[in-house]
Amino acid sequence: MKVVGFSGSPRVKGNTEFLIETALTQLQKQGFETELVRLGDKNIEQCSGCYSCVKLKKCSIDDDFPQLFQKMMEADGIILGSPVYHSSITPKLKALLDRAGFLGRWVENEMKSDGSGYEWKGTAFSGKVVAPVTVARRAGQNFAFAQLLLWATVLDTIVVGSNYWNVGVAGTGGAVDADQDTEGIGIITHMADNMGYVLTQLKK
Ligand SMILES: Cc1cc2nc3c(=O)[nH]c(=O)nc-3n(C[C@H](O)[C@H](O)[C@H](O)COP(=O)(O)O)c2cc1C
Asked: Where do the structural domains in the chain lie, given as residue ranges?
């Protein structure tokens, strides 16, 4: 089984990446295959709202999205990590989630010809185990964390938490110091244990 962690930070080896790697390392110890995917160097346009994926079952924008969606599809578990930017997740992660969420719904469902709705048949993310992770210097965690949580819970995924919300506190003055956040490391490690447990139970 595979767990893929998507980092919405533009910073290589920053705080978000450290926390995602903390989770992935813990999952590796339990025998999971893992991969970290950095969005910072990817070209991900925002959703154009063209609705062509409803019929074509693919996104009409020509950028790095198809390979990222493919990685999401290959994953049994998905960790969505973002630094908090003005109380929000970063634009690239939002763009990925908008497009993946919409396409993920329409690859599994057919809109009625009169546009009146559809008979729900699940989504491409149904049954995948998802963990949101945010990291902030001080404030705004709740909104950013909620963005990830709301995405995960509208797409028929199974969300894992921890002994606290899956958040880290780091970055005063731009520092890469998530390794000093011992409480955060404990929370993320326990989240990884929960994800491993849920995935193992689901695949029995
Ligand atoms: C443009 C920008 C906006 C930010 N907004 C917030 C914020 O709203 N609240 C907060 O506590 N920290 C804020 N921060 C700090 C980052 O969330 C923090 O430094 C985080 O640890 C960076 O993670 P990274 O190293 O993975 O990029 C902001 C940083 C930047 C660059």
From this structure: 2-202
Q: Which residues pair with 73 in a beta bridge?
A: none
Give the model confidence (pLDDT) of 151-188 as tens digits.
999 999 999 999 999 999 999 999 999 999 999 999 99
Q: Whose CA is nearest to atom 3 of ligand 1?
A: 85
Q: Determine whether the shortest distance from the Cβ of 82 to ligand 1 is under 6 A.
A: no
Q: What pLDDT, on the 0 to 100 scale, is given for residue 115?
A: 78
Cβ of residue 9 lying under 6 Å from some atom of ligand 1: yes
Q: State if pTM tops 0.85.
A: yes
Q: Is 157 in the pocket of ligand 1 (CB under 6 A)?
A: no
Contact 140, 86 (CB under 8 A): yes
pLDDT band (50, 70, 90) for residue 114: confident
CATH number for region 2-202: 3.40.50.360
Residue 91 near ligand 1, beta carbon < 6 Å? no
Cβ-based neighbours of 204, under 8 Å, separated by 6 or more = none
DSSP assignment of 116-148:
S-B-----TTTT-EEEEEEEESSS-HHHHHHHH
Q: 138 in ligand 1 pocket by Cβ < 6 Å?
A: yes
